[in-house]
């Protein structure tokens, strides 16, 4: 590690810790919008009052929330690897990422099935649905990972990082390639970093035959073989975060340019919507030139939003806050368990003759209240909290310690 002349060195990175929690909680808001999307029905239930506004919220959050999450995950993965060593790092990742995936997936998937079947029966006045969809095949190419796909992809990125590191060390014993990589990273960080980082995503979007521009990066939640767009798009963010931790002083550059990146993000997002329309659409780009324009706009918006929110978090959230720390700790549990609860609330609210601006916040308030209560009462001070957050949180007021400053956030 090379933390030179860096005001973030030697302290817990509270800004990135808070942003990681924000990205996970934003996923709850993202999924909450899906029953309100206008246009073609893509969710298990459609609300009686669809909203273009919530459709735009869906679009914008999908632009950057997972790219931001994987960048931070790569950053803290490199930190954790050098703090723990290879063997301890592998054990830690299997415990805190692999175990929640293996144990959590059957519980989450079973709960989702119960909600979907119950919703269908209720919609048919107590009778079984006339055309129930066939159950998933549970083959590697057709496996419903649900929203827990991010854990599966994280494990893939960890494995690739460790293998790649070993190969590079074997072939580059003098460290020339690593030094060159560090120089290239320093040279590209600046007002146009988003342009460079967007290139792999643009290429993979252009190579995808049936890419739907309005929906951006296809979510790799239906197969054990992640699609190339998600693998390279989010993989670029993970590797960038991994390399960024090698030179902690570069965080100051990202922080410096957060406002220009925000301006670029707004312009690129506007360009995306001008090309795709304000409403969700399952249409392909009509020609190659339009597809290229959509791909460039989307990738640029994704990365400029990511760099903007990372820089803003470093600028404005770097001080310790007990509340932000608590929310960051709770966010992992909340994201793991939120989808079945959210779907049940969406199903209950869908037919109510209320405006979307009443139902949407009501769903979120009830969901967050229940999930935070379950975290505090059943997780934070138990062995489950020790698995998810690295150690069991003591009861009583939180106390910031020197040890806390060295411990990485849970992902």
From TrEMBL:
Residue ranges crossing the lipid bilayer per the database entry: 21-44, 56-77, 98-127, 147-168, 189-212, 224-245, 257-276, 288-314, 326-348, 354-373
Pfam families: Acyl_transf_3
Species assigned in the record: Arenimonas oryziterrae DSM 21050 = YC6267
Protein name (record): Acyltransferase 3 domain-containing protein
Source superkingdom: Bacteria
Keywords, sorted A to Z: Membrane, Transmembrane, Transmembrane helix
Keyword Hydrolase belongs to the record: no
InterPro entries in UniProt: Acyl_transf_3_dom, Glucan_succinyl_AcylTrfase
Domain Acyltransferase, residue spans: 14-375
Secretion signal, residue range per the UniProt entry: none
GO molecular function per UniProt: acyltransferase activity, transferring groups other than amino-acyl groups
């Amino acid at each position: 590690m090379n933390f030179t002349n860096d005001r973030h060195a030697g302290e817990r990175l509270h800004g990135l810790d808070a942003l990681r929690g924000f990205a996970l909680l934003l996923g709850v808001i993202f999924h909450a919008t899906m029953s309100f999307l206008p246009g073609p029905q893509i969710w298990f239930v459609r609300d009686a009052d669809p909203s273009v506004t919530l459709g735009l919220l869906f679009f914008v959050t999908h632009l950057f929330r997972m790219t931001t999450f994987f960048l931070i995950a790569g950053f803290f993965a490199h930190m954790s690897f050098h703090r723990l060593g290879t063997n301890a790092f592998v054990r830690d990742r299997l415990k805190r990422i692999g175990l929640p995936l293996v144990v959590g997936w059957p519980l989450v998937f079973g709960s989702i099935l119960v909600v979907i079947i119950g919703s269908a029966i209720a919609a048919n006045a107590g009778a079984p649905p006339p055309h129930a969809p066939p159950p998933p095949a549970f083959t590697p190419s057709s496996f419903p990972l649900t929203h827990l796909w991010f854990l599966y992809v994280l494990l893939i990125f960890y494995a690739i990082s460790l293998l790649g590191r070993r190969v590079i060390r074997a072939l580059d014993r003098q460290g020339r390639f690593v030094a060159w990589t560090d120089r290239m990273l320093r040279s590209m960080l600046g007002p146009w970093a988003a342009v460079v980082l967007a290139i792999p995503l643009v290429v993979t979007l252009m190579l995808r035959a049936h890419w739907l521009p309005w929906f951006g990066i296809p979510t790799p939640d239906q197969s054990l073989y992640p699609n190339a767009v998600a693998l390279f798009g989010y993989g670029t963010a993970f590797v960038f975060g991994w390399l960024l931790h090698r030179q902690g002083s570069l965080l100051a550059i990202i922080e410096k340019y957060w406002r220009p990146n925000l301006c670029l993000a707004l312009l690129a997002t506007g360009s995306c919507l001008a090309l795709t329309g304000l409403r969700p659409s399952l249409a392909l780009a009509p020609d190659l030139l339009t597809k290229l324009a959509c791909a460039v706009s989307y990738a640029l918006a994704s990365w400029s939003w990511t760099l903007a929110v990372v820089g803003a978090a470093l600028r404005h959230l770097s001080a310790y806050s007990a509340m932000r720390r608590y929310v960051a700790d709770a966010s992992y549990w909340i994201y793991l368990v939120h989808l079945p609860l959210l779907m049940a609330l969406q199903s209950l609210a869908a037919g109510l003759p209320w405006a979307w601006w009443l139902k949407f916040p009501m769903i979120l308030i009830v969901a967050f209240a229940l999930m935070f209560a379950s975290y505090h009462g059943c997780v934070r001070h138990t062995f489950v909290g020790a698995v998810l957050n690295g150690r069991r949180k003591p009861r009583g007021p939180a106390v910031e310690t020197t040890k806390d400053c060295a411990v990485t956030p849970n992902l």
